[in-house]
Amino acid sequence: MADSTLLIQFAKSAVPGSVKTRLVPPLTTQQAADLHTSMVVHTCATLCGAGLGEVQLWLSGEQQQPLLQSCREVGNFSQRQQCRGDLGKKLAHAVQAGLSHSERVIVVGSDAPAIDAAYLHAADRALDTTDVVLGPAWDGGYVLLGLKRFARHLFMGIEWGTDSVLEDTLQRVEELAWSCSLLAELRDIDRPEDLRFVPDSLSLQPAGQAQAERLASRLASFAAAPGLAR
After folding, report:
1. 200 belongs to a structural domain
2. Is pLDDT above 60 for 85?
């Protein structure tokens, strides 16, 4: 019998200069990698603590033991490797694999720390009555995708990383004649103006004291800057 719900987290390896590059400047490449690591661990803890079902961490890039160890300190999950290709191909591969043994799949990235257990449970409840659930992002993308059916068309021809991702995805849903629910809009952390929305708790994630101090110091400067109060 298939498991009910599978939670999938997408994440990149925390290599300075290859993650969160749109935050450099004002962050340094190391600070951006530190922030990325904290968000990956934070998201992993949220998924593992939600109590919805199995959690899988799908990584892109080299397998970094420090990152994985930090994640294992906050929850139990299985590790997978993302396939080659654009984000659409990677999502399609992970979702298809997940639905082969689970009734429904909920996928999130690692850069929307506002996602909490309540948000995940809302997505799961939505899938009781709809084929697709999407968590819109403030910038026109989405922070969560939930599915109980698979069609590669849903992921094809999308201009990933643009402000039309959600709109284009909803168009694919309509073309498939699937039902869809939308959750509350959340903000992901992609651009310098998003830094003021980073929760203070991220600097406390178990990813190293030196990293935590570097990150907390840098983020404090944005909280104190005129016009950037949280």
Report:
1. yes
2. yes
